[in-house]
Design a protein that fits this description.
The protein is mainly alpha-helical. It folds into two domains: about 120 residues, Orthogonal Bundle (Helix Hairpins), CATH 1.10.287.990; about 110 residues, 3-Layer(bab) Sandwich (minor pseudopilin epsh fold). About 50% of the residues lie in helices and about 10% in strands. About 35% of the residues are buried. It binds fe (ii) ion (FE2).
Length: about 250
Amino acid sequence: MMDLSRREALKAFGVGTAGLLAAGAGCLAQENHSGVAGAARMAAATGKRRYELGALPYKADALGEVLDAETVSIHHGKHHAGYVTGANRILDQLDAARAGGDYGRIQALSRGLAFTASGVVLHELYWRSMSPERQEGPSGRLAAQVESDFGSVSAFADQFAAAAKAVEASGWAVLVWEPALRQLLVLQIEKHQDLAVWGSVPLMVCDVWEHAYYLRYQNRRAEYVDRWMKVIDWRGTGERFDLAIGGV
Ligand SMILES: [Fe+2]
């Protein structure tokens, strides 16, 4: 296996030309996020790009004030890993479809790829949207952009939390950089792939699928979200923002 370099990763994931979720994976495959193996690697033996399960950037019990170790372990080792396996299986099936000229399952495969690959990308970002080290808020260029686009950090936080709590069924709240108007947006995501603003780069996400919080919080999603807002990794989010505004 060999790592994609930063530029290769950005190019491979289509920053600037492809969609919201794919572009975000480019930001994740960076050497400046310690412990990040990257959402994707290229298999040297076959030359095919395939997703990999990145290691957690901290121990499973490190977010104890918000998430218990069992929740984190199951979420990462079962749910996140399942999307990696599923996405790679579909990529293999698409290879076979092209080889055989048989596109009878193209709709199912396309839908499945959008769901599973987006699940991989968002989960990689989710683990890196949290930090065991308490951080007060954004700094540098991200802080200035948050002030410009939301009015204040607290106004951003209010909108983000409200969006997370109100996601219909299973989904996410996400902070994105929208390059056309060069602005930050808070979006909701249903499942892993619906409600995107294409071209946007995801910077920070909160998973509000029940598997993210049910063991501790049961049906109290709002309590989970309120606690989650206190463990945002603003430093990592700022690094991804700097990369996004320079790379699109
Ligand atoms: Fe999840």
